[in-house]
């Protein structure tokens, strides 16, 4: 009897969490489902990558990964945390130069053609549906608190994973944002969290459109998606091209290496600035997260002039040393003759400037 009560209690608890815990996200609208089913990238009820991307590890690789996790890495996160540069709200609002400011991981503030955009603004303390159990942010504060940010012209998301799309951040941001731009299937999360459906755009790969004078394109990535149970690959993941009259920016989102980078470079390059995934990798999941050397090859493929490595510097989501991504990226950049900027979190980089941050601040 005790066993049956325990099992029943667990079943009820799981049911309540899946149906009433908003962090897990929301359901897709009928219009969203229609567009998803019409997509060439949606096959057998799942979105798929351009090339085969197996993610199921064999028994040997699974054991190897568990051994790595159990052993741990004393250098997997900075001792004592890290400090960040503080941002002045007045500076953000009044400085009209094309610029980018990194918030750690893949969260960025982009000013281009006088517009203020946020890319994957995960500002929470932990990239987990249950933050008390998840990995913690290295820094104790952000460069600027969400409440201090000026009005945001658009928020752009690459996909719906917890380290990119954060419930708590949206709750604080939604009153400041004029437009949300997301991949197919992601809007339902925002709507459940109180965002007006009228200010959400969903896009498939290779959709090209204008937004307040900018040309934007949702471009492919090699990854996957999903929140909660049963939602894997039912929404799309993507990279983004952002173009003004004088500046071209590429945001890779999360991606393994693949032929899509050359396709994007051929169609939209060269880029003045690229924001390229570089971190949280492992040989066991190389198809969905690039190794740093692959990141630099992708930079060459898209014809990028200056690259900022992202997807590192905020959380530990893999077993490599926390500085390994940027150090390997710098080494690969030197070998390829590529320009790479290494701003501190909160330090502004001016797009097109001859001088850019290149200090080894993590040391």
Automatic annotation (TrEMBL):
PANTHER family registered for this protein in UniProt: N-ACYL-PHOSPHATIDYLETHANOLAMINE-HYDROLYZING PHOSPHOLIPASE D
Recorded superkingdom: Bacteria
Domain Metallo-beta-lactamase: 117-312
Protein name: L-ascorbate metabolism protein UlaG (Beta-lactamase superfamily)
InterPro entries reported in the protein's UniProt record: Metallo-B-lactamas, NAPE-PLD, RibonucZ/Hydroxyglut_hydro
UniProt entry tagged with the keyword Kinase: no
Chain's role: Counteracts the endogenous Pycsar antiviral defense system. Phosphodiesterase that enables metal-dependent hydrolysis of host cyclic nucleotide Pycsar defense signals such as cCMP and cUMP.
